[in-house]
């Protein structure tokens, strides 16, 4: 599983710590962390890369917080879905929000799942296994 790359987009240091610990306990330790939406899009779309060129990184899955500085999680997800390089990358939303509008928007934008923080590593791995992502090669 060491080649399985996860992008964790999380601005809260405590939630980041808990998510990383939970992921490591499940054997998922190849994790890149972005601390705001702008940084995440920089990693994924590459700074100044014209549309159609390879993304800077293409993780097997993105764990995306919604309440982010600079660019919020919904806008990050929308940008990913509107770019050919990232439109099919699985995104699991991690949030403390239970607002129906957030849930609906994430579903409409094709989020794989919507989990409430703190991250439960076993639940996350279950979702990845169900989506057949854990055996998929890193793109």
Automatic annotation (TrEMBL):
Keyword Ion transport: no
Keywords for the protein's UniProt record, in alphabetical order: Phosphoprotein
Name used for this protein in its record: Response regulator
InterPro entries, per the entry: CheY-like_superfamily, Sig_transdc_resp-reg_receiver, TCS_response_regulator
Domain Response regulatory, residue spans: 5-132
A Pfam family per the record: Response_reg
Modified residues (4-aspartylphosphate): 65
């Amino acid at each position: 599983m060491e080649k399985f790359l996860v992008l964790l987009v999380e601005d809260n240091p405590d939630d980041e710590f808990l998510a990383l610990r939970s992921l490591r306990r499940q054997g998922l330790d190849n994790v890149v962390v972005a601390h705001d939406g702008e940084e995440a899009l920089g990693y994924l779309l590459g700074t100044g890369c014209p549309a159609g060129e390879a993304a800077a990184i293409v993780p097997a899955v993105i764990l995306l917080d919604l309440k982010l500085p600079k660019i919020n999680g919904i806008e990050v997800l929308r940008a990913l879905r509107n770019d050919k390089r990232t439109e099919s990358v699985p995104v699991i939303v991690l949030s403390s929000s239970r607002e129906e509008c957030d849930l609906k928007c994430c579903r409409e934008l094709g989020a794989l799942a919507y989990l409430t923080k703190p991250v439960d590593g076993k639940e996350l791995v279950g979702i990845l296994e169900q989506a057949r992502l854990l055996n998929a090669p890193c793109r």
